[in-house]
Design a protein that fits this description.
Two copies of one chain form a homodimer. Chain A is α+β, with helices and mostly antiparallel strands. Helix content of chain A is about 35%, strand content about 20%. The interface between A and B is large, with 65 and 66 residues. The structure holds a DNA duplex.
DNA sequence: ATAAATGCAAAGCATTTGCAACCAT
DNA sequence: ATGGTTGCAAATGCTTTGCATTTAT
């Protein structure tokens, strides 16, 4: 029996991966689109987006979210770290000390560091609990 | 001479700050909007967005970008940290070792940690240089 | 054969903006 | 009085989707 939800190997998917592997510039979807078009003038942006999503879901690439569809705001001005639950979306402050010397370490590499951001992803206690009890999603 | 670009103290700005200071939930702009409406039925979403931006630019609150308007993709599957230039938008990999024991530290607080993300913000070498030379933006 | 993937165009949706009226200083 | 701020609505801009058609397996 053939597996359902099987991921096919298409030319557009291959070109997209090639393009991505050929750069260190952390490109946007649109940049990838422009590059892929050079080899396949008829690709559609939709295909690029669908493949980038599929590829990152399968761990072939990493997606880094920047900008903001859903910015969150915090009246706490002090630097602090967050935990983000990948199941319920909860975002909580972590009562964890700010790591000292971290920005200095990057500054030594020639960067002028203003601030840093550290986030942990996973399941919050509640979701981890529901998951193990086989609750619905 | 009165300063230009002075920030006024408006009722909507105050209510927005109050709402934000009254929660630990890292709300979205829309949640803030719904809350502020309870006190000021006529506020507009545009005002919420404008004020959230002003407030974070002035360091009164923190904005945490989630989701993605401008996702970036990386064929490098290994976990690694990034530097983001706030002036030119450059995003670079940092050749910096992954901090050991970090996820364990959060796990001890009851979270089920899958991964983490660490980013540094500031000026890249080029931009820092141009800035000091008084180059245009 | 058959379900996944594509191209194209039409939504979706959070966020931004133009503009006249308004109001804090 | 003056220019920052607001409300309203239209516009952006990235990303997602519906659908008929291709295409990989």
């Amino acid at each position: 029996m053939k597996p359902k939800g099987f991921v096919r190997r298409t030319r557009q998917r291959e070109v997209i991966l090639e393009v991505l592997r050929g750069t260190k510039s952390h490109p946007t979807a649109d940049w990838v689109y422009q590059e892929v078009r050079k080899a396949m003038p008829h690709v559609s942006l939709g295909t690029i987006y669908r493949n980038l999503k599929t590829l990152s879901e399968h761990g072939e690439i990493q997606e880094l979210a920047f900008g903001s569809t859903h910015s969150r705001f915090d009246a706490n001005k002090e630097i602090h770290y967050h935990f983000v639950c990948e199941r319920c979306g909860l975002i909580e402050d972590l009562d964890m000390p700010v790591i000292v010397g971290l920005e200095e370490e990057v500054a030594q590499r020639g960067y002028n560091v203003t601030t840093h951001r550290l986030e942990f992803y996973g399941l919050c206690p509640d979701c981890a609990n529901n998951e193990s009890m086989g609750k619905a999603n």
